[in-house]
Structure formats: structure tokens, C-alpha cells
Specification:
The complex is a heterodimer of chains A (about 190) and B (about 450). Chain A contains two helices and nine strands; from the N terminus they run H-E-E-E-E-E-E-E-E-E-H. With about 190 residues, chain A is α+β, with helices and mostly antiparallel strands. In chain A, the strands form two sheets. In chain A, strands 4, 5, 6, 8 and 9 form a five-stranded antiparallel sheet that branches. In chain A, a hairpin with a 2-residue loop joins strand 1 and strand 2. Chain B has about 450 residues and is an all-alpha fold. Chain B has a domain of about 280 residues. In chain B, about 70% of the residues lie in helices and about 0% in strands. Chain B is built from 18 helices and no strands. In chain B, helix 3 packs antiparallel against helix 10 and helix 5 packs antiparallel against helix 7. Classes of the chains: A alpha+beta (about 190), B mainly alpha (about 450). Chains A and B meet through helix 2 of A and helix 7 and helix 10 of B.
Amino acid sequence: MKLKHNNIIRSLALCCCLFVFSAQRVSAQDSTNAEAQITLTFGEQDSVKQAKAVVTKNHTPLKGVDVVFLIKKSFGSLPLGDAVTTDENGEAVADFPTDMPGDHEGNITVLAKVEENDQTGELLASKVTNWGVPTTVKDKFDQRTLWSPAANAPIPLVVTVVSLVALVWGIILYMLSQLVKINRLGKA
Amino acid sequence: MEPVKIKLDKSNQLLTDLMPKKFNASGKLWVGVLLVIVVIGFYAYIRQLQKGLVVTDMRDFTSWGIYISNFVFFVAISLVGSLVSAILKLANVRWRTPLVRISEIIAVAAIFFAAIIIIVDMGRPERFWHLFAFGRLQSPILWDVIVITTYLVVSSLLLYIPLLPDIAICRDLTPASLKFKKWFYTFLALNWRGTSQQYALIHKCINVLAVLVVPLALGIHTVTSWLFATTYRAGWDSSNFGPYFVAGAFQAGCGGVIAVTYVLRNHYNLKKYITTKHFDNMAKLLVLLSLVYLYFNINEYLVPGYKMKTVDGEHLKSLFTGHYAPLFWSVQIFGMVVPIVVMLFKKGRAPLPVFIVSLLVVVGAWFKRFLIVVPTLLHPFIPIQNVPASWHTYMPTWEEWAITSASLAGALLVITFFVRLFPIISIWEMTEEQQSPQIDEQTNLYEAQA
């Protein structure tokens, strides 16, 4: 009986070893793809701001890979022109517009993306630069607008309505006072 | 100011003719029919309270049905108070005197039921006070609430203050044995003794209210039109809506006062006071108002009809040639064109034709409000998709008809009971006219012209 048990344990141990070995092989294949990399840098040439993406695989530059430059928006991304193909140095360069609105400090998140490439798969790099035009977001929540809560009605509207109501109801109260006067005159 | 001397004995023919009278058989039948309609409507409203607005045919798209159509109709009718009491007064039109109180009670009854029908339209009526407590000043709905409340108060004052001397007559002529009736008139008469100071105060109040009520009347219906015009919807998106609504309101109100005047004149035998000349004049006024309203209608439909923008076009096609065409053309022809044509002729301005035409105007005015409210709601900018088939159309349920009919019957009941309790033609103003030589001269001149 003991012999049988030992055989079963050995068989299970062998299966586990085979499973771990095969898993390591798959992992090795993935890491081969993962060695394709994209890096994003910013620079200036002849006073023109440029975003530069470098695509490598196993530290070797890849030529002929289409790179799309994008600017991250609140929802989705804005393409920065057409896709740019990498040269023999694995570099793709896109001119950066000078009027792109950024956050209040002018920061913009730029993305460099390779889509569905046989050699690299999908690659994505992102980096923040302060090349954007600083924009001030007006927070209208506490402002007096027609669409604000009741407490934040526009002052001219409040003044107009309150004045009209006060005027008309003032006259109504005056009329009521005249009725009281009529009543008193009758008593006298 | 000289006080008006009114003889409180049988020799005063005005008292014999104009004091309120008990209902005769037809009067009782009339009240009975109206009460039955009110009771049925009340039962329907209880069902609506129990089950919610699901008993109506109002759904996501047609969220305003005949309740709101009826509300706009009531607001429109109520403008007649300012027309006869104020505008004709300020224009120094003497013949208006017998019609003033009739138009004022119509105005008060109409605006009162306009307010009630708004509460009926609310899914949670117990939250009505939220409008005042939490209303946003930016919303035209709150403006409407303010202006309706104000107009109701001013119209009530314009009815009540000139009524004081006549209430005092009722008080003085009511036997002491009728204790409650005596107390009722005494309470309302505010110790009226008919002194010159009291008359001076009354005249001052009437003058001030007459000036005040005109902008208020324009305001109430203009703001009501803004409930529609401030939304971006086909058929409502018009900068013309304010004057369009006001013109329609004066026309409907004028029709209403003529119809009620005719019934009261015949039922209470008031032909001596409400003459054929009154109908002739009111008919001419109605022609003028109908022409103005026709002009606004042409503007409202012809200009968008010329452009036929996508959704506007669909909406207009449903009115001109589609589902609502029979109703639309009936309203335009019988509610506007026919009255103008008939009353252009002298024979058409006799009491009976004017009465019939006025009924056409009033009925046309009600359905006109339906055509303003409902077809637009059935033509939203985003197509109606993936909803139950019944949501594509609107056909009021029996509960809606019952409640709406009850509100109309209720307004008529208010007028009926008012006539039962108070003189419908002002006795003191008629006496004042008889005692004033200046007015006599004008009246004689006017009768000679007639």
C-alpha cells in the first residue's frame, strides 16, 4: 500500500514540475514581446517643439513602425496629426502645436501609441509636458446664473422681481388699509 | 363727493329689477346639473389621488394634457375683468356699467379655477407649498405662481370694493328674521353707511385698481405664454408668444362675457339695462379682438410654415393636414373667421347671433389651447423610440375629462351663486348715472345715436 501511495505522490510531483516548466516557457515567450519598448521624449529643433518617440525591441531600434501621437483629453484622446513612421533609428517625430490648451499650469499629457504591429504588439507611452497654454477653468457652481440653485439667482432678476412684487403688493396693502378706513368711517 | 342717494323702498325700480332673486325651476335644474358634474369630477380626482397620474393619459412625452390646456384657457378668460373694468373705464366708455360686475366675477371665478387646475395637474398636490418654499426665482413657473396669486387678489378687490354699497343695500333689505343671511351681508358690508367720504374712498380705490390691473393682466398671460416660449420646442419657440397669448385671451374673455351676459339678461329679464346696443358694441369689440388675434395666428403659423424647419415642419403638418387638421381648421374657421364675418353685419350683432358666435369663440378658445399644448409635446426633437405604442399619442381619459368638466362647471357655479347672492348689475352705479346730469346728457346722446 505504501508503495502505491509513494508512486501517486511521485506522479503528482512530476505533473507539477511539468506544469511549472511549461508555464516558465510561456512566460519567457511573453517577455520576448515585452522587450519591444516605446519611449517618449520632448525636445526643440529650430525653435519648433517636437515630441519624439523611439521604438526598440531587445534594445534594437525598429524601423517602419507607425506611431500615433495623441493628447489626452478628459474623455478620449485628440490625435496630433497623422501617424508617423519610425526611421532607421526607431525614431518618430511630431511637431507640437503652440496653441494647445493645457491645465491651469499649461500641463498636457502626451501619448505615443503603436497599434496592432506584428513586431511589437500594442505599445503605449505617456508623458506630461508644460507646453500647453494655461487655461483657467471657471467654476460656475457658486455663481449667480439662470441655472443655479434658488439661492444663487442673478441679482438683477432678484431686484426686478422683488421690486415689482413689493410695488404691487404695497398697493394691495394700501387698498386693504382703505377698506379698514371705510369700516371705521361706518362705525363713526 | 356727493353721496349716491338710493331709495330703499318699492318705488325704486332699480331695486325691484336688480336685487338678487331666488332660483326658479330652470335655475335649480342648472345648479343641479352643475353640481352633478362637479361631484363626478371630484370622484375622478379622488381616483387620481389614490392611483396617481397614471389614471390620466399623460406619459413621458405628453406630460401636459388637457389640465394645462384648461389652465391656459382659464387664465385667458380671466383677462376680461381687466378689459371691461379697467381698459373700458380708462377709455371713459359709459355703456360698460352693466357689464362690469359680470366680467369681474367671470375673472375671479376663472383665475380661481386656473389655480386649482394647476394643483390637480400635480402628481403630489400635498407638496404645492414647495413652490413657495423652494421655488427658484429663475423659473417662469414661479413667476406664474406669483402673478396668478396677485391677479386673483387684485381681481377679487376689484369685484369686492365696488360691491360694498350694494352689499349694504342687501343688508338693509334683508329681514332680521333671516339671521345668517343678515349676518353674512353685515359682515361683508364693512359698516357701509353711504357717506360722501366712503364714496370718495371707493372711487379712489376703483381708479387705483383699474390702473394696477391692466399691467397685471398683461403680465399674467404673458408670463403664462413664457412657460411655453422659454422652452426650445417646435411651436413654442417664438418671441411672439406674449402678445399672441394676450390677444387670444382678450378675444376669449370678450366672448365669455357676452355669452354670460346674454344668459343673465334673458333669465333675469334685464333687457332694460343690458340693451341691444350693448351687444352691438361688444360685438364690434369682439370683431376687433378677433382680427388682432387672427393677425397673430397668421404670424405664428405662416412664418414657420414658410420655413418648414425639420421638427417645426412635422409639427405644422400634423396641424395643417395631419392628425390634428380637423380640429385645427375648425378652431381657426369657427373660432375666428366666422365670428368676424358674421359680426361685420348689423344683423349679426343682434343679441342671439352674438351669443351663438360668442359660444363658438369660447369653445374654439378652449380647443385652441389644446392645440397649443399637446401637438408640440408629441413632436420632440429626439424621435420617440422604444416606448409603448400608447405613448406616441394622447387621448384624455374619462378621469381627465371629468375633472376638467368639473372645473368648468365649478367656475359656472361660482358665477351662479354670486348672482344668487349679489346684484349682478351695480345698483349704486346705475343710480349714480341716473343722478348725474353730465352722465345723463351723455346717455341721452348715446341713446339718440343708438
